[in-house]
């Protein structure tokens, strides 16, 4: 049985097709406003807010129909990004990511994240 909210997401946003619901937050940073998208458990996208049309295109290519829900500090990830810009560079290492891409691309992202911060 679907809740009323799930039916609205399914039929209004998805036009009868399954919809991937993602969470969206905007973060003010020293380098500009960032657009962060999560799936509730993983960071899926972090880009400049000015790049929203391109980010939306990539998200739709990856997930199909999507519904973005504005969410303040989803899973505490926004705070971790803010802490990074405040000088706590290790704070982002604890954010689980969902990179998508091919198996090879995922392996590259994992290898890059495994490099100790002190070596960068």
TrEMBL record:
One Gene Ontology biological process: DNA repair
Taxonomic superkingdom: Bacteria
UniProt-recorded Gene Ontology molecular function terms: methylated-DNA-[protein]-cysteine S-methyltransferase activity
Methylguanine DNA methyltransferase ribonuclease-like domain segment(s): 27-97
Coiled coil: none
Pfam families: Methyltransf_1N
Protein name as it appears in the record: Methylguanine DNA methyltransferase ribonuclease-like domain-containing protein
Organism in which the protein naturally occurs: Ktedonospora formicarum
